[in-house]
Amino acid sequence: MALTGLDIYKLLPKTNCKKCGRPTCLAFAMQLAQKKANIDECPDVSEQAKQTLGAASAPPIKLVTIGAGDNALRVGEENVLFRHEEKFYHPAGVAVAVSDRLSEAELDKKLKEVSALRFHRVGTEIGINLVAIQNDSGDKDAFARVSQKVSSNINLLLILASQSPEAMAQALSADGLAAKRPLLYGANNQNFESMAKLAKEKNCPLGVHSTSLEELADLTEKIKTLGVSEMVLNYQGNGVRDVLQGLTRLRRAALRKNFRSLGFPTITFLNDQDPYGEIAQASTYLAKYAGILVLHSYEPWQVLPLLTVRQNIYTDPQKPVQVQPKLYEVGQVTPDSPVLFTTNFSLTYYSVEGEVEASRIPTYILAVDTEGTSVLTAYSGDKLNEKVVAKAMNNTSVGERLKHKKLIIPGLVAVMSAKLKDETGWDILVGPKEASGLPSYLKTTWDRHGKKG
Prior knowledge:
Layout: H1 5-9, H2 25-33, H3 47-57, E1 64-66, E2 73-75, E3 93-99, H4 104-115, E4 118-121, E5 124-127, E6 130-134, H5 140-153, E7 157-161, H6 165-172, E8 183-187, H7 192-202, E9 206-210, H8 213-225, E10 231-235, H9 240-256, E11 267-269, H10 275-287, E12 292-295, H11 300-313, E13 327-330, E14 339-343, H12 346-359, E15 363-368, H13 375-380, H14 386-396, E16 406-409, H15 417-424, E17 427-430, H16 438-443, H17 445-451
Parallel strand pairs: 3-6, 3-12, 6-7, 7-8, 8-9, 9-10, 11-12, 14-15, 16-17
Antiparallel strand pairs: 1-2, 4-5, 13-15
Helix pairs in contact: 5-6, 6-7, 10-11, 14-15
């Protein structure tokens, strides 16, 4: 039975020293009871209390690390079912499957294309994390050969997927491969002892699969007794609905019932022949609650939407992603260049920047501090008004860089024009309502009324 906050408080030093970052020992105890803190954060707790509280205060979903060093992927250790309750902490891993049936030429081509799956979105680089090498041939030599080649030629984490302990052992025998700490996927009710032995010997996490949640729970308990604590679970359901329900039941069992046997991150394999359907399914599983997704699709137009979904889901909903509020230069600006303002909400700013770059007209962009909110949201909440914009202009001394006094404002807040002109003394030009209209606006309207006006 889980310990209550008061039960935990009785085992703490009760000094209210604040070394753990909480105001009192009772507050720390309450967070321990809610699985939002770790007992190791208290430097003065006794060893006896640590032993008593260690298991009780451990996160309901085990943290599993794939890979080593700064490039490692950490999945699990989530505390909530819904993002708005707190946030999700460890972004799901996205992998592309590579078959050991590929010829040398096909493998080289695929590895080159997979390595290029890196994108820039709202100021952040996003990309896939892993390559899943699948033992489709059933040949241990082919599996070892492809595993070694992938390991040597790609800077991504590895999943070795085979139900053959012999094939897995041969792949791991390659120089340096085991040290990269790949996920060994393929343990089931028939081979778990051999697979667990390998995982323990090589210090690698183990992937366990079954068509039954009850069998998965039974397997994790057996594997733990063999000395392996880092596991990733795959519920092999019958269709999208069944898999989605299985992932949800796993998460609920761990968080709501503190059922440790299912308290592990998950992995889900996709293999839909429809190139659109696979990504749609993957996005569904990503939202609830896949820890790793293995795709067969790897075209950039397929992967980017999934990575965008991941980026959105794993941001803190209470802390909007924002850029530094300042004056940005796009291109080789001059004193005659146009200047426009937008808010410092990342999605808004980078949408504007991208369109300005597309126009090929060097432009100043003033990112106004609206606490990371969009133009209309900021205006509605009075975080964007003539005084806020005027202050931003003064702080950046934008007027000292220009020969003109003309400011382009977002079309959505055209109503600010008169007050902003009175506040700043600048001529106000109303820009397009959508960022996509900026290239045309800068090439026509600015040229007529701004540059020459």
